[in-house]
Specification:
Chain lengths: ~350, ~350
DNA sequence: TTGTATGCGTTATCAG
DNA sequence: CTGATAACGCATACAA
């Protein structure tokens, strides 16, 4: 700045004024300054600005693991909205490790980030850290899950409702022996999904077999193990609701290893409806979560807070959408409830394979 | 710092000295300072440090799109080694848009990042921007691809060799009509893969049908289109080498739509070997790229530069690994070359389906 | 309308 | 060994 001040024969303060339009500057001078800036390729130091204003244009983004295929779209939604408002992202992977999470969250404060977006790891006292932000009036929005005790802003998906709909669909197809592989129940989204499953069974008057409720991590190998356990029971479940798509892949794999055909011998429904759900064999029926919208919406809310919005904490619930594909069919020999099949091809033993050709 | 200086009855300079161990401080004082720091929960301002030292502990990470399933593992590799050295990541998605890329790259300088990792978009003059970093002695490492005219550090994958091996495998299986769906040839990695394909055909004395070489974007819908085009030709190719897995998914989809069975009617090989390659039907033969290692290696190199390593530019080539799964079989009625099948079940028309059961 | 001066929180130099 | 003190690059209150 000093250099361009000299070049334009003005004071350093004037330069600042034309840059920030913080005072009217005579056109003549103004033009000289602008020209100097252009010709010298001046770029303001984000560091000095941040130090002076005690706030930067950086947003903290704390997620469990970018390698989990659900999160990239969330991050992308965040980045797009942030970019338009010229905010930048510091990305942090916690691996669901409370210590790493706490360390990141507390460290981000030293960067004077303008706001924090976090997909919290399970069962932590991270809420305290987050409240520390609030008391420094740095806004925080939780995404996808909520830490215990968090009363602030959150943008979530209608987990319970989505799970409820998927389960009801399985029930309508005629399944009576339904199992569920839940995610880590310390995570609110996993717990909600299990609730939805339970409610659907209760409403249908189907007793819940405790052994048919398995907890697992949100990944394929863990889902695979749980599925193996379930599928070796007698009588076997005829349908499994996997609480995310990765778990569903593990189930698919387990079924194949045991020589079970899907959907003839076993129906599978997932949660996420990742891009890849279309490409599995059979393609996977799954509850779609709007990941990109999750991130985008959360960021819009966060930036409203950054802009000074002072209203009561908001809890936004985004709707899910059950994507019916080919991994679900009636259990062998069962005619599905009429409601699902009115006007369609007469339900017979051949229904399952007929459906499989129906869509890709 | 002033506060803890007062609390500990020392000067602010001394505080700095005990924090940075930049001078020996008498144990007594030292302990008082440490105690004050602890009790007041002092955290240094990363901003002020950066301003003063004219360098931060942030790394710029510029990628095309985190939503492309190959990149998250790269980013994760970067983050892990950066984290250990307590460097943080500013993540930027360019969408392969040269303007957005240039804007990000130039803006990152204002943050005084310690180094820059970039997966460059195609055909830009971004190399000039990058050299600007070099002349400010901020190290830059290119990952996965290299912009035209870049002579600096780069960590890449043996693209040509990987493509060569995959193609040779197809040839060994007996294919004579091989098509390729290349990525955007403006990207060095796409161009290299095509070279590998070409070399394999040349060595085998198979003429390259110009129509059998299609260029496409690195995504499924674009790959799907190209595949449709190829598969409607007469005579059809019996094998398609897709230059990444997303393209291969598109090919798979196209084949199904046209009623072609894979691998009986069409063999498909991909490049990436994403986690999901195991779950498609049939599972996808693909050239594995060590994405995590790509990121980790690049970051190690970058941090060496940050630490002052002054040697000549390095170009690291990471090896690929052909993962043979079930999407490749001999073309109908062909006995594959003996080399691949010695000691195995006698090759017959039933080979393909026999192989399909063999692995998941 | 323009210039001057101060401080943001550190590090680093240098004198005691 | 310790304490002043001067930058780092910018924004802003205030004086001119």
């Amino acid at each position: 700045m000093r250099q361009i001040a000299e070049r334009a024969n003005v004071s350093i303060g004037t330069v600042s004024h034309v840059i920030n339009e913080t005072a009217a500057v005579r056109p003549k001078l103004r033009e000289r300054v602008l020209e100097a800036i252009r010709s010298m390729g001046y770029q303001p130091s984000a560091l000095a600005q941040g130090l002076r204003k005690n706030r930067t244009n950086m947003l903290g983004m704390v997620i469990p693991d970018i390698t989990n295929p659900f999160f990239p779209s969330v991050v992308r939604g965040v980045e797009d909205v942030a970019y338009k408002r010229s905010f930048r992202l510091i990305l942090c992977n916690t691996d669901n490790d409370p210590l790493k999470e706490a360390s990141y969250v507390s460290e981000l404060r030293t960067y004077r980030i303008a706001g924090l977006l976090i997909i919290p790891a399970g069962s932590t006292d991270i809420a305290d850290h987050l409240r520390a932000y609030a008391s420094a009036s740095v806004p925080v929005v939780c995404i996808d899950r909520v830490p215990t005790g968090w009363k602030g802003d959150a943008v979530l998906v209608a987990n319970a409702q989505g799970a409820y709909e998927a389960t009801r669909y399985l029930i309508q197809m005629g399944h009576k022996r339904l199992a569920v592989i839940a995610g880590p129940l310390g995570l609110t989204n996993a717990a909600e999904r299990l609730k939805g499953f339970t409610r659907a069974l209760n409403e249908a008057g189907i007793a819940i077999e405790p052994e048919f409720v398995q907890e697992s991590k949100f990944d394929a190998v863990s889902g695979h193990q749980a599925a193996l356990y379930l599928l070796r029971m007698l009588p076997r479940p005829t349908a499994i609701f996997a609480c995310n798509d990765l778990i569903a892949y593990g189930v698919l794999q387990a079924a194949r290893e045991l020589g079970l055909r899907c959907p003839e011998d076993l129906s599978i429904a997932g949660f996420d409806s990742l891009e890849f759900a279309k490409f599995t064999d059979p393609s996977l029926t799954s509850v779609y979560q709007p990941g990109y919208q999750l991130g985008a919406t959360a960021t819009r809310l966060l930036l409203q807070r950054v802009d000074g919005l002072r209203s009561a904490p908001k809890k936004v619930l985004l709707p899910t959408d059950l994507k019916k594909r080919n991994s679900v069919a009636p259990p062998s020999g069962v005619v599905p409830a009429a409601i699902e099949w009115t006007g369609k091809k007469k339900a017979t033993g051949g229904v399952a394979s007929a459906r499989r050709k129906q869509q890709f």
